[in-house]
Design brief:
alpha/beta, Enolase-like, domain 1, TIM Barrel, eight-stranded parallel beta barrel, binds D-mannonic acid, binds magnesium ion, Mandel_Rmase/mucon_lact_enz_CS, D-mannonate_dehydratase-like, Mandelate_racemase_C, Mannonate dehydratase
């Protein structure tokens, strides 16, 4: 079975998505997610200009060999653009293999290890009162684990905090502004470190001890500040503290780890197993945050998770709305199959996105499930996709109050 057709489809039903569509000589279609938020066209070009010619006429059956060919072949290894492109090819090949076998992809990965994948949703509020409303809304929707972000006194706008909701309203935060250049937000680490423990204290007092709570620090702290935050949150028993430092300096996590027992999650900006080498072998984290979309697909993420399993480190696969429904489905097949599953992030896509991508995964009583359709279980409506043209959109940039560019 040869690969005969390769199409790169860009659509923007609220957010930009890049999808790779492979068609085999037998007419089987596979889909892969190649979306790299804010740099979408770079991956589209990498696919169109450098990968399409390599795929035409290639055997569709040999997924590992194709992965290695695209990883080792170009000489230039790793990097978010390359790994998102490889991810898309990999997912599409798993989709094809599942459809040919008549089996959902999780069956090809070894079958079911659990009834469903525990999901966490996002709650945010500019104030603690607004946050409480958002948490109630998520609990009403069935979520059993919740990420909490809030405004910080003195800061006009904080990343990850959407418009305050009314009771019954859905979370509809759109982190990437559809503007030609990124908008700018300001940041004050000391004010943040003073404020966040009070927020968690209030949430625990209102919602009790058992609700799993998560928090994302978006890479903004030094190792010592990360240690301080982890310690100050220990009384509130977090499920995890995410991205406390910009972890490309993996050794920096030694300081955090040695100072706090708050569980640590890292890796949404990582794209290869080597980005985790120190973090995993020294057991400096508890959860791997990579998505299949940004870490070389199902094959790439599976390698990371098997490595992590040796050290009792679990998955916490990245699932924001800039991972397309195809990327989300790929994550869910892994979640169900691997033994060292931890939790799955689930930001619900808007209705237009779900018209373009018809999904078969379900969210019932706090648990996600990839469904039983053969392959990944997502179909792309190409005419619906064509109606939404690419629109430049960027995440904000982050500056300290004196104007210095800051990590996030
Ligand atoms: C966030 C994301 O989901 C998360 O944990 O960090 O919103 C992230 O900022 C975006 O996916 C970046 O593209
Ligand atoms: Mg994050």
């Amino acid at each position: 079975m040869k690969i005969e057709g390769v199409d790169v489809i860009i659509t923007s039903p609220g957010r930009n998505f890049v999808t790779l569509k492979l068609t085999t000589s037998d007419g089987v279609v596979g889909l892969g997610d190649a979306t790299l938020n804010g740099r979408e066209l770079a991956v589209a070009s990498y696919l169109r200009d450098h990968i399409v010619p390599l795929l035409i006429g290639r055997d569709a059956d040999n997924i590992e060999d194709t992965w290695q060919y695209l990883y080792r072949g170009p000489y230039w290894r790793r990097g978010p653009v390359t790994m998102a492109a490889i991810a898309a090819v990999d997912m599409a090949l798993w989709d094809i293999k599942g459809k040919v076998a008549g089996l959902p992809v999780y069956q090809l990965l070894g079958g079911r290890s659990r009834r469903g994948a525990l999901a966490y949703g996002h709650a945010s509020g500019t104030t603690v009162d607004a946050l409480f409303i958002a948490i109630h809304n998520l609990l009403d929707d069935g979520f059993k684990a919740i990420r909490i972000q809030t405004g910080v006194p003195g800061l006009a706008k904080v990343y990850g905090v959407g418009n305050d909701q009314l009771a019954g309203q859905k979370y509809d935060y759109e982190p990437a502004g559809r503007t030609a250049v990124p908008i700018q937000e300001d940041w004050d680490t000391a004010a943040y470190l003073r404020h966040i423990p009070k927020v968690f204290e209030a949430v625990r007092a209102e919602f009790g001890a058992a609700l799993p709570l998560l928090h994302d620090a978006h890479h903004r702290l030094t190792p010592n500040q990360g240690a301080q935050l982890g310690r100050s949150l220990e009384p509130f028993d977090l499920f995890w503290l995410e991205d406390c430092t910009p972890a490309e300096n993996q050794e920096g996590l030694r300081r955090v780890r040695s100072q706090t027992t708050t569980p640590l999650a890292i890796g949404e900006v990582f794209n290869s197993i080597f980005d985790y080498q120190t973090l995993i072998t020294e057991q400096l984290i508890d959860y791997v945050r990579s998505s299949a979309t940004h870490a070389g697909g199902i094959t790439g993420l599976r390698k990371i998770m098997d490595f992590a399993a040796i050290y009792q480190i679990k998955s916490g696969i990245h699932g924001p709305t800039d991972v397309s429904p195809v990327g989300m489905a790929a994550a869910l097949h892994l979640d169900i199959a691997i033994h060292n599953f931890g939790i799955q992030e689930f930001m619900v896509h808007n209705e237009r996105t779900l018209e373009v991508f018809q999904t078969s995964y379900t969210f019932i009583d706090g648990l996600l499930d990839p469904g039983e359709n053969p392959g990944l279980g997502v179909e792309l409506d190409e005419s619906a996709a064509a109606a939404f043209e690419y629109t430049p959109a960027y995440l904000p940039v982050n500056r300290l109050l004196d104007g210095t560019m800051h990590d996030w």
